[in-house]
Known about the structure:
Layout: E1 2-6, H1 17-30, E2 35-42, E3 46-50, E4 53-59, H2 66-70, H3 78-88, E5 92-95, H4 104-112, E6 117-121, E7 134-135, E8 139-140, H5 150-157, H6 162-168, H7 173-176, H8 185-189, H9 191-208, E9 211-214, H10 217-225, E10 233-235, E11 256-263, H11 270-278, E12 285-292, H12 295-304, E13 311-314, H13 322-326, E14 331-334, H14 344-351, E15 356-359, H15 362-367, E16 374-377, H16 383-395, H17 397-406, H18 413-428
Parallel strand pairs: 1-2, 1-5, 2-4, 5-6, 6-9, 9-10, 11-12, 11-14, 12-13, 14-15, 15-16
Antiparallel strand pairs: 3-4, 7-8
Helix pairs in contact: 1-18, 3-4, 4-9, 5-6, 5-9, 11-16, 16-17
Amino acid sequence: MQVLHVPYIFHPDPVGGTEVYVQNLIRALQTLGWQGAIAAPGKTTHHYLWQDLPVYRYGLNPNPNPSEIYGPGDAVSLPAWRDILQTVQPAIVHFHALTSGVSLRHLQAAKALGLPVVFTYHTPTVSCQRGTLLRWGQEICGGNLAVSPCGPCALQGLGVPQPLAQVLGRLPGTLTQRWPDRRGLWTALKFGGLVTQRQQVFYDVMAEATAIVAVCRWVQDLLIANGVPPQKITLCRQGTQADAVDQPAAPHPAALRVACLGRFDPVKGMGVLIAAWQAMPHARIALDLYGVGNPDYGAKLRAMAANDPRITFREPVAAEQVVPTLQQYDLLAVPSQCLETGPLVVYEAFAAGVPVVGSDLGGMAELVVSGVDGRLVRPHDDPLAWARVFQELTANPESLQRWRSGVQSPRTMDEVAIEMVALYGSLLA
């Protein structure tokens, strides 16, 4: 059987956790007799092999207008997309994103051929236009689109002052739909209507998809709160491709070594960690930051940490090297300021036998047991709260050893693949 997986992007472009998940899932499915191919939007339409995986890229409109971005999706790419479906002849199409390039239109084109469609909710951007599921960037949002101030909140997240965002974000689409479809001020004036349009796309995708996969409990709860029938949802958590190590490395006696891996983005919280280090200038704790993307924000972080020799910026590591790399550390820090559905790096840390200090948010709160295999910290606390955790560990190293002993072997991608095959089989039956 052949499954066509559709992420937002793919190698050799810079990828994130979703694309690593897709690649690992395809490998695990192959061992069970299910072949996989990848289709992803790109600048041009072309086909290539990536580590023997067939990859099909379909070119998008290079200058989409706001209605295309927030609406049912890119129409320019549909002929190439249909050609890919005809070439691959998949038994199932599995979507892993919802953007203008991986859209309602692309899903409907697959459904028109009679193909079952699976949709996996990987990140808050699927339903939240702010992308964080944090109302006004501060408090956790339940994600119920019927009761959330989505337009104003998303506009404020783009830098519009909250009082003005409250006004502009509530202008109804019936009023603004005839206004010019341009960027800049016109987009701000039409933003409320655009967000309403995007929410309808979300509802339509949930209705059109044959099955929906939630990778953590909070996603399942969000989907049900937005009217998705529970029987249509499969809870299938992520897993790691790496085998758990038999004997984790011993703690470092000279200084506590902490790693943080993620995107250079404010919502990933690396700035919080740097501020925490600045709050404990004499602590013997080394912090290594492995960041990718957004070079401007990366430069800002480097400037923040410039005077602290304990903080080092490292080059990103390949996915297959994450677990061996983490074995060199005492702790993984995951200071995310938004709801994560994993993150996958927590599974990888546990595979390395390394405890995790992370934000008490989303999927992380479902994986880390505070005081057993790490510590959960309120995400929006002062950086001093994070500093206190690390200072406590330097003063009481037995706590770190207890956490290390509490780390259990994580769920594997082989387990994920077994559950996914059961889902695929039920759809084909």
